[in-house]
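Changelog note: in this version the structure field was regenerated for every chain. One regenerated record is shown below for reference.
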Amino acid sequence: MESVKRLSSDWRYPTTLLCVYGFFSTVKPLEPFLIPFLTGPDKNLTTEQVNNQIFPVWTYSYLSVLVPVFLLTDWLRYKPVVVFQCVMLFITTALLRWTESVLAMQAMQFCYGVVTASDVAYFSFIYSVVDLKRYRKATSYSRSVQLLGYTVGSVLGQLLVSFDLMSYNNILVFTLVLTAVALVASCLLPMPQRSMFFHRKHSGQRAAEEGAKRQRGGSEDEERHSETSNTSLGDKGDTKEQRVEEDEDSEEIKGAASCSQVALQLWRDFRQCYSSRQLLYWSVWWAMATCGYNQTVNYVQVLWEHVQPSQNFSIYNGGVEAASNLLSKQKTDRSETVEKKEGAATAYGIGFTEVRWEQWGELALGGFSGLGAAALFLMTFAGNIWVCYATYTIFKCLYMLLITIAMYQIAADLSMERYALVFGANNFGALLLQTIITSVVVDSGALGLPIVPQFIIYASYFSVISVVFLIRGIFSVCKAQRIKKEQSSLNGRQSEICEEHKF
């Protein structure tokens, strides 16, 4: 029993279980071939039904549950939401396997929107059960294993489809088995005693910390001697201990903050964070670019289907997704209060560059956004599947490179709580923009445009982002250069005055 307790209290135990969960919940072999599956003989849905009626439901679902899930995640202390996420993922896969109608597929997309919104529990769990000095390792493991899961799923799907080893339906059954393994791992996760906002400190956590300090402090005899010497201090010592207990009680009361207190604190932090003009500009780009990126990634398979119909089984969607994941996915390392983003291949070099991003960053955002727009235009009009694959990979790499820079700049001067708030607010803004675009451009109840006009709009959208930030970047650089010249001339005049006084 003691060995079990010792194992569960070690940081490796929750990290390993979370990695197991993260891997098996992200291995989805059918995901790169979802459009051929839905429009093929298994479901007999049309491309218009999938594009204009089914896929928009995910965006609406994600937006509607994002804020409630975010608050419930912190209030329930992560683990229940992680388990709930896995259950919803299981239901999503089951609906995809055993139902066929448009209404059932819309329900499937709603469930998947809940799954996506619950990702916050997975990303936040590790910070509530691991010591500060272990954050970097634990976060690196949990992020990297998700990258591994996505990549393995894409490669596995490509192999199963290319060599005709499994039908689409059997691949879904296999995915259900993997999800069941993830569900078992989520149930075995320890229950955190604290959270970021509602439960900042818990008495059980404090007792555990005190126990760990005793183990590090020395033998039991030394502790008894220390207690005896403290008792001999008399009334002053008693008063000091009483004050400490009162402070701990008040701290515990603060930890169990009410919803109104948490909401008020979040609003204050929100106003203070976005009072920084530089953070505001970076956040605006983050929200706008993430909106366009999500729309592109969500509907790119429909474009591939338009370029090369599903009857041709030489498609390599899985291989392309695996390659783009390896080249563009990012892993997050947390070291004290600074988020260091290191994207595989493309974004890795950001941490080693000496560029003054506060001066040249907006110009970089505009320039690389323009390259992304060019890649989308080429993808839309090329009419060749291999050109589509190549430009899609380039587009993802460019976005991940830029979002890495943006995240680093925003997180540099923020605490973990405020970074989580800014991260959530930016993503909510992106999702709100995405919902507007989906409801107007994609949804069959509005314009319901075909896939090619959709991608023309997405490419034009990134062109607008590029122009806006190029203008803003040129203005910032010119302003910085003017200030530098004024400062140098002022320094020159001061040196001349000094020289005159010498003589």
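Spot check on this record: Strands lie at 330-335, 338-343. Residues 441 and 447 are 5 Å apart (CA to CA).
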